[in-house]
Each structure stands twice: as C-alpha cells, then as structure tokens.
C-alpha cells in the first residue's frame, strides 16, 4: 500500500535533503506548477475574489487544475471562514501545501493561526458549524471538498485519521477503551467481533500498552494521560489510514511522556508508511518529527520548507520570533527567551497587508508595503517559500548578523 | 461495585428510619408540643358526640398517655410486626406492615393502600413510558435542529406543558375527547389490567396523556440542553473522526451522556408519582393512592395520611436507590466513588 521509500525510516538526524529524490519537491510547488496560483499573481486581489461558498468559487477558476495532482495530499488555496455575529472569522485564508506518503509535515503557529481549523477541514469535520470552505483538498487523487458528506465520512477513519490534543476528553468516558477501538475498526472493515477485539488488543500492544488483553476492557478513566493518548493513537491507526493528522498530540501530556508519544508516532509512521501532519505550537515537537514545516500566521502560510531550512535558515520574521521563544537545551547557561511582541491578531479584522506587520520589528524596512499588500508565498531557496516583503538578501543578512547570534545565545552576555 | 450497592442500601435503610422518626414526630410529637393533650389526639378517633369519659378511655386504649419514646417504639414495632387494636368491645388485629387503623371506616390502612396501589402504578408507569419516549426524542430532535421551526415550536409547546396545571389539561382533554367526541373513557373509569388489558389502556389513555404532557415538557427541555452540551464534547468529534454515521454519533455517543441526568430525574419523578398522583387522580377520579390521601385529609383521618406519607417516602427512597445503582451501570466512573 505504500512505496518502499515511504517505509524507510526518516533520516531525522541527517541534515539536508533525503538522498536521490526530493519527496516533497516543493521546488516546483506553486506558482510554477499550480495554474490557479499562476493566474493570480497579486495576492491582494486573490483574497477579495475568493469569498463565499465553495461551489460558486470553483467555477471562476481557470480550467486545467481540476485534474488530480499526483501528490498524495495536496491542499490548494484553502479558505475556511466562519460567519459570526461579530463578523466573518477568516480562520484559514488561502493556504496551500503538499505531502507525500511516508513523510511528515509539521504545521506550526500560535493559537488561532488556523492550524486546527485546517486539519478539521481535511477531515471534513466542519460540517454543521456554518463554516464556509473553499479551495481544494486532494487526497490520493480524490478531491474531498466537492464530495458529499457521506463520501467523506466513509474515508474518515479509514483513509485519514486524527489524534486529538486532549486524550482525556477525546475518549468517550462511558465506553471501554477496547469498545471504542473496535467500533472504529468495524465501521470500515467487515470483521467479526472476535476478530475486531483481537485487532484492538494487537493495536494496544503495538502502541506500547502493557497487558493489552486486560487493558482492552478498561475504561478511559482507568488509563493515565500518556496511556490514553496511546490508546487514541491505536484507535486512529485501527484501519491503517494513509494520512494521520496529529493535532497537538503532546500538549496535554506530562513532559516525560511527550517524547515517548513522539517516538511512537515516528516508529508507527515508518512501520505503516502513512503520511503524517503534526500540528503544534511547539517547534521542539516538529524538530523531532517533521520533514517539512509550514509556519502559519493568521490563517496563512508564513514560511514553508524543509525542516533543516526552517531551523537553520529561517527567513520570516515570525519564524525568527518562534525560534526565539523556544527554550533550547543545547545552549549552556541562563538563556533568556525572546517573546514575539504583541498578541495574535483578530481573525475578524485581520491587519491590512501582511497580517504580521503590527508585530514585526523589520516592518519599516520595506517602505510601507507590508501595510498595504498581502505578501505572496515566494521562492526563497530550493523548496523554501516565504511570504515576506523584505528582499531575500535583507532577510538573509538580518538572520545571519542579527537574529542568529542572538538565538545562539552568547553565554557571556546571558550571564 | 457490590460494596457500592451495599453501601447505598444501608444508606437507604437509615434514611427510611429517619423518615419514620420525622413522620412520627409530625403526627405525635408536634401536637403534644403545641399543647394538645392525649385526650385531644384521641378525640380525632371517636365520633363527634363522644363525651370526655369516652375520649379519655380511647386515649388510654390507644396508648396516647404513654411517654413519647414508648409510643415511638410501638409505632416502629407495629410497622414490622403488626399490632392489635383494642376497640373496647372487640380487638382488631392490624397485620404487619401496620400503618395504623382508620377509625373512620373501621379498617387497617395497609389493605386499603394495597387495593389502590395498582391504580397508581398503572397510571405512573404508562405515563412514564409516554413522557420518556416523547420528551427525550423531541429533545434530541430539537437539539439537532436548533433554531429551526421544529425547535421553536416544540420548545413553545414544552413551555406551555410545564406551565399548565394538570386539572386544566386534564379537564380539557376529558371535555374534548370523552364528552364531545366520545373517543375515550369518561372520568372515573378504571379496569384492572388482569381483567382486561385493552380496557385498562383505554380507560387510562387520557390520564396518561395529561400526566405525560406535563412531564414530557420538562424532559424535552432537559434532553435538548444536555444534547446541545454533549454534542460539543471532544469525544463526539472523535466519534465523527472515526467515520461513524451521524445517526450513530447522536444515538450512541451523544445520548449516552445526556441520559445520565435524565435517569436521575426520572427515578425521582417516578418514585414521587408512585406515592400518589394527587392532581391527576383527583381530576380523573381514579381510585389511586393520591385520591385516597386527598379523601383522608378531607376526613381528618390521620392514620391514612400517615400511611400514605410513609408509603410515598418509601417509594422515593427506593427510586433514588435504584437510580444510584443504575448510575453505576450507566457511568463507569461512579463505581470507584
């Protein structure tokens, strides 16, 4: 069900690209390969055109992009808006990314940057919330947004599964853990109760729960937080999904357990060969797992590229901010964290132009452009895209001369 | 689990004794404290024309002149072992459980209550089935279609349901369906189920509907609120993420959590009703416990009132015991506590 390369263990410690082939091939990622993007060079005008419901919007796009892409998962220009009494909440506002089988994408951003909303949109879980969704989500050659809710339901749990943030509240308190896994399995697979139960026990054992044959009959409250998250993972994996979305899988867990869960996800991925999206506000988590990283801000992509690029050559001021606010153990001595100034923007009144400009330290360097025009995702290097008005050279210079030394924390200064 | 049930049963028994003590105090101690002599109490048990001598003799026979703790002891004893009443010329045996001996119709209370219990049980059980099915399903649909015409209409009707007293809806139903249209039995009809089940249901349908309407309204609102809350829970999202059909998400995952508070209230409501649906039974002239209590109060027949009080208390305690045990079945987290 997966290609061989997908089954390879991710070379997490090795730097640079995987050998031979670049699996994500973000190099030819839009604008070059996506006619929809190419047809709309101006970011600002695009935003205005894409309002309202999915159906009507699909028609005003130019033709050929309706063809299925050859990537496993491709999200194209996703918009998720929620009409509320206070106004339209633009939770996701034009987001594109791709993912191959066997690879891991980390989506990083503050609360309210649209990470979870994106994942729920892929899972088709925005139904009945009044969300207005437009764009395209291609999974394994099928477009999900245009499907009926019944069609999406049949794929949920089977082709794509999700692990949620809080394992305490994400499991039904009144049903046994085993029952919940069996239910997830039997809804998609024609198996007898006995087979399903054995499958549940196997899965629980696989995710590292001791005495699975006994624990299968326990209730969620009899599990510890870490065990519960393992059980959630077992439930998500019950139908061997080819896409696994983990929405802040370690946020609610004890620090000592976090690493275990991340290891588990990584091991399972290499074993099952699934594509994994890991959503987090914690750069440490994606550093551990992700092949590529998408940094989101106010519902849009800010920076997108290989994990190594994001950590070693970040170019977006917001990414710098995130890196600066991440505690690092590889630095000796007292190290002061550098928070991103200000607060996340309102998604009803998103700041004009670049949504990050009110919090950006380098905002004045581009002559007010960031207050008027929304920056488009542009190539900043091979497979590396940044949505920033600053010229590439300026960004590189600021990073090398200003930000990097600060982050690497000269020990003397800190003391 | 077993320990939990045993603990609950012990608490229920203790509660029953407390209630017996309180009831006894209300009927025997409070009048004494208020200055009534034992003769005053006895005067309630004899005819109006009785003289002071006769009253005093009665008080002595009934033991009203004994110290209160002794009287309480006798009272508890007769509940469990029965007693003999000295009626002067004859001695009447009141078998256990002896709630007292009505001097108005010269008979022990308990057999009377036993006669009337099937009526009240029939009424309460039938209505309970109706209101549970009706109220819960309306509540679910309302919650799922929040803000629609159905939701608003049913919640409006529910508001009317809780607001309108049973003697209004009951009389309205009787007038329309029994007296105008002739579709249903007139008031005062009751056929025991063992005699003719069809006739039993036919006779009770209006009281059932009237009573169920009152309760269904509350249950619909309760279910709606519970469902609205539950359907926002994380585990409902998980159920959807598994790919379960929406129907199963609602009925299996959503309803299960919503039912917990409903079971609690349902148990207590049913227990209370079994102690006599006073208004319904009066409105439809059904010979149940409630009607019996009303008649007893009108006649100042204290032993009957006392008997009904204790039976009603027993039902409520029993119902809450059953609810507590059911809770452990419904909510596995209770078992630890």
What does this structure look like?
- The complex is a heterodimer of chains A (415) and B (337).
- By secondary structure, chain A is an alpha/beta fold.
- Chain A has 18 helices and twelve strands.
- Chain A has an eight-stranded mixed beta sheet with strand order 6-7-8-3-9-10-12-11, sandwiched between helices. Chain A has a four-stranded antiparallel beta sheet with strand order 2-1-4-5.
- In chain A, a hairpin with a 2-residue loop joins strand 1 and strand 2.
- In chain A, helix 15 packs parallel to helix 17.
- The longest helix of chain A is centred in the middle third of the chain and has 18 residues.
- The relative contact order of chain A is 0.13.
- Chain B has two domains: 107 residues, no CATH class; 227 residues, MetI-like (MetI-like fold, Orthogonal Bundle), CATH 1.10.3720.
- In chain B, strands 1-2 form a two-stranded antiparallel sheet.
- The N and C termini of chain B lie close together (10 Å).
- The interface between A and B is medium-sized, with 29 and 20 residues.
Attribute tags:
heterodimer; A: alpha/beta; 4-stranded antiparallel β-sheet; 18 helices; 12 strands; B: mainly alpha; MetI-like fold; two-stranded antiparallel sheet; 13 helices
């Amino acid at each position: 069900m997966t290609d061989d390369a997908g089954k390879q263990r991710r070379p997490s410690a090795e730097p640079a690209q995987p050998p031979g082939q670049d699996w994500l091939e973000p190099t030819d990622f839009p604008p070059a390969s996506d006619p929809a993007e190419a047809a709309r060079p101006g970011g600002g005008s695009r935003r205005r055109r894409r309002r309202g419901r999915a159906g009507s919007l699909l028609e005003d796009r130019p033709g050929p992009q309706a063809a299925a892409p050859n990537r496993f998962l491709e999200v194209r220009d996703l918009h998720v808006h929620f009409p509320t009494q206070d106004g339209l909440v633009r939770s996701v506002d034009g987001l594109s990314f791709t993912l191959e089988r066997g690879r891991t994408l980390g989506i990083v951003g503050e609360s309210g940057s649209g990470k979870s909303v994106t994942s729920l949109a892929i899972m088709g879980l925005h139904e009945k919330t009044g969300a207005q969704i437009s764009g395209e989500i291609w999974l394994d050659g099928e477009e999900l947004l245009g499907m009926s809710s019944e069609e999406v339901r049949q794929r949920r749990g089977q082709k794509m599964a999700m692990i949620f943030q809080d394992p305490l509240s994400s499991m039904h308190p009144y049903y046994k853990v085993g029952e919940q896994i069996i239910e997830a399995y039997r809804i998609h697979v024609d198996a007898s109760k006995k087979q399903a139960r054995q499958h549940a026990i196997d899965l629980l054992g696989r995710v590292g729960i001791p005495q699975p044959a006994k624990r299968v009959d326990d209730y969620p409250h009899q599990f510890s937080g870490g065990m519960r998250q393992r059980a959630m993972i077992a439930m998500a994996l019950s139908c061997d999904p080819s896409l696994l979305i983990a929405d802040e899988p370690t946020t609610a867990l004890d620090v000592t357990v976090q690493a275990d869960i991340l290891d588990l996800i990584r091991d399972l991925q290499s074993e099952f060969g699934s594509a994994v999206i890991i959503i987090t506000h914690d750069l440490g988590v994606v550093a551990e797992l992700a092949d590529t990283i998408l940094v989101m801000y106010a519902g849009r992509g800010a920076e997108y590229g290989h994990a190594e690029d994001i950590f070693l050559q970040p170019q977006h001021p917001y990414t710098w901010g995130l890196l600066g606010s991440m505690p690092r153990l590889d630095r000796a001595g007292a190290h002061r964290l550098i928070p991103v100034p200000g607060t996340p923007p309102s998604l009803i009144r998103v700041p004009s132009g670049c949504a990050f400009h009110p919090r950006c330290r380098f905002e004045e360097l581009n002559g007010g452009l960031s207050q008027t025009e929304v920056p488009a995702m542009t190539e900043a290097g091979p497979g590396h895209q940044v949505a920033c008005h600053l010229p590439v050279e300026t960004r590189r210079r600021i990073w090398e001369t200003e930000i990097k030394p600060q982050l690497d924390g000269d020990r003397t200064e800190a003391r | 689990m077993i320990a939990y049930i045993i603990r609950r049963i012990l608490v229920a028994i203790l509660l029953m004794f407390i209630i017996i003590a309180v009831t006894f105090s209300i009927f025997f101690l409070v009048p004494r404290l208020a200055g009534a002599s034992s003769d005053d109490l006895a005067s309630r048990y004899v005819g109006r024309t009785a003289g002071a001598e006769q009253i005093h003799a009665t008080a002595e026979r009934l033991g009203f002149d004994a110290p209160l703790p002794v009287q309480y002891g006798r009272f508890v004893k007769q509940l469990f072992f029965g007693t003999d009443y000295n009626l002067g010329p004859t001695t009447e045996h009141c078998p256990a459980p002896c709630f007292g001996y009505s001097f108005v119709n010269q008979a022990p209370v308990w057999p009377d209550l036993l006669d009337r219990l099937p009526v009240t049980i029939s009424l309460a059980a039938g209505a309970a089935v109706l209101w549970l099915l009706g109220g819960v399903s309306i509540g679910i649909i309302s919650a799922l279609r929040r803000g629609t015409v159905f939701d608003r209409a049913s919640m409006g009707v529910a508001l009317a349901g809780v607001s309108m007293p049973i003697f209004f809806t009951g009389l309205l139903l009787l007038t329309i369906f029994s007296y105008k249209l002739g579709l249903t039995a007139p008031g005062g009809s009751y056929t025991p189920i063992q005699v003719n089940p069809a006739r039993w249901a036919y006779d009770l349908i209006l009281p059932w509907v009237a009573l169920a309407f009152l309760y269904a309204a509350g249950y619909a609102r309760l279910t709606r609120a519970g469902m609205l809350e539950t359907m926002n829970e994380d585990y409902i999202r998980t159920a959807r993420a598994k790919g379960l059909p929406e129907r199963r998400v609602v009925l299996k995952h959503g309803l299960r959590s919503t039912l917990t508070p409903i079971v609690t209230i349902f148990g207590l409501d049913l227990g209370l009703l079994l102690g006599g649906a006073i208004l319904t039974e009066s409105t439809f002239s059904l010979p149940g416990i409630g009607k019996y209590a009303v008649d007893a109060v009108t006649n100042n027949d204290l032993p009957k009132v006392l008997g009904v009080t204790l039976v009603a208390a027993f039902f409520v305690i029993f119902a809450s015991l059953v609810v507590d045990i059911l809770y452990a079945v419904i909510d596995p987290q209770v078992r630890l506590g």
